[in-house]
Amino acid sequence: MAWTTIHKQPLPSESTPNLIDEEAMRTPFSWETARTELAGLPEGGLNIAYEAVDRQVQNGLGETIALRWLGKNGERREYSYAELASLSDRFANLLERLGIDKGDRICVLTGRIPELHISALGTLKAGAIFCPLFSAFGPEPLRTRLVKSRARLLVTTSALYQRKIQPQRAQLPDLEHVLLVDSSDGDGTHSLRALLEAESSQRPPPTTLPEDRALLHFTSGTTGTPKGAVHVHDAVTAHRLTGRWALDLRPGDIYWCTADPGWVTGVSYGIIAPLVNGVTLVVDEAEFNARRWYSILEQEKVNVWYTAPTAIRMLMKAGIDTARGYDLSALRFMASVGEPLNPEAVFWGLEALGRPFHDTWWQTETGAIMIANTRSQDIHPGSMGRPLPGIEAAIVRRRPEGGVDLLEPGEEGELALRVGWPSMFRDYLEDEAHYRQCFAADWYLSGDLATRDSDGYFWFLGRIDDVIKTSGHLIGPFEVENVLMEHPAVAETGMIGKPDEFAGQIVKVFVALKSGYAPSDALRRELLSFARTRLGPTVAPRELEFMSDLPKTRSGKIMRRLLRAQELGQSLGDLSTLENQEEQEP
Ligand code: WT7
Known about the structure:
Elements lengths: L21 H5 L4 H6 L11 H14 L3 E6 L5 E5 H17 L7 E5 L4 H12 L3 E4 L6 H11 L3 E4 L1 H8 L11 E4 L9 E2 H6 L15 E7 L7 E6 L2 H12 L7 E4 L6 H13 L3 E5 L5 H10 L4 E4 L1 H10 L1 H5 L8 E4 L6 H11 L3 E5 L9 E2 L13 E2 L5 E6 L5 E3 L5 E7 L8 E2 L3 H6 L1 E2 L2 E10 L5 E6 L4 E3 L2 E3 L1 H9 L4 E11 L3 E10 L7 H15 L7 E4 L13 H8 L7 H4 L8
Parallel strand pairs: 1-11, 3-4, 3-5, 5-6, 6-7, 10-11, 10-12, 12-13, 13-14, 27-28
Antiparallel strand pairs: 1-2, 8-9, 9-20, 14-15, 15-16, 17-18, 17-19, 19-22, 21-22, 22-23, 24-25, 26-27
Helix pairs in contact: 3-4, 3-5, 3-10, 4-5, 9-10, 16-17
Bound molecules: 5'-O-[(S)-butoxy(hydroxy)phosphoryl]adenosine (WT7).
The site of 5'-O-[(S)-butoxy(hydroxy)phosphoryl]adenosine (WT7) has 22 residues, from helix 10, strand 14, strand 22 and strand 23.
């Protein structure tokens, strides 16, 4: 299936990969043993933030730079491991003073700034649950997530607060405290800086247990509001080892993860995995810009770089000559995640940057990388790679009566993982039914359609459900369609992902109007702007097409599959008979 393989290079002796022989690792490996390599806490306790910073201080990395922040206007701030440890202690003390209890949800809505990292680590130390909110979300997705998480405290900036939260604060009865990172006390808000200064930087070690809840990441499905995937402190066992194996992280590395911590990659591999592996984290506040990115790789001497296909395609667009102007000799390893990484992008990396991109696969629910092209293995461009040690992956077909059939190499089916790895989600917040649907026998079913070749490499084929990926962000149809339905002109609407050269897919909606309304360019613009104001630029549809009627099942469900087929110019078949077919809920 691989049309070309990139064979592993002879390795210079000073840089042997962390994971040399996956197969030899697989047999003796156990997550129980892996857990014992962590410092842990008295009486069997475990805490992600303690492993990420305090343990590094104890190991002599106190003065090492943990976080190097590059502001969008050229500012630079550095935090050592010791500083992160004491600032996060202050934050945890503050939460305690404000009466935040173990298990309470703390939301953070900021751009990529160090206060986000400090709040995340402090929340974890206090035993509360950290829930990041993406700063480009509009008021609607933010309200849904704040309501569903029942967050008691929000850390944000004054601009984001005024634009997106303050106007709907009355609808957020659980939200008791709003702390602003850049402002003095105001109407219903407090200055985070002033509060932190008043706190002690000393604190006894955390009292969390491995199975205590730690992280909450919202993710979309086909139906209903976003689901809140909950992870526990034991996830750090997987963050640490997958960071070592799949990203080849080692103490002293300069590491840059371009993902925003508003999504799971930016937390698992933008905060936890790098810190727990003792590296220096580069955090860039600015948005994508090809020259800026190359300058960062060059000037910060980045050794390991974790990014996404959309960004790689944008770099490819900027041209190979742009890349050639920079000294990228510090780069040892480059990896990608979030959407299919086309073989062209892998080869382009080799040609333009001197290294191939290594694809990795995982999900919000898996919490950590499950499948990867690791540094010591041949890369099969276009393939997601092979399961890491401790991970058993298979291609399966669900049996209608329950359980699964395991499929053979070459057969297409659902990508499944045998349960039991520590970063697996433990729950969808208040949605036990959806959680249970993700499992059959002892397999977690990913919702991805894939195949495995006879060499054990996994190949992504698509999603089984109707969620889409745009610039690596997972978007569910429900949130988008729901907002459009609030417009008085809209009778029905269906969302699809339309293939796009750079974003992978863009959000496209089909709209049928109520009687009394006629399609026009003005109405199209109005609807797009209506959606954009409420949803924010990431989630809002980029294209809108009017239809007189949308294809539906007999029970009235929009058949997005047919909308997709129409968009791609595939045959629609006979709509009148299709209307009588019930579409299966995945
Ligand atoms: C979905 C999960 C990736 C972690 C952060 C996002 C798609 C992920 C790949 C890949 C093709 C990929 C899948 C998956 N996806 N990695 N290497 N190749 N598709 O997590 O937002 O929960 O998205 O992203 O469809 O199910 P997420």
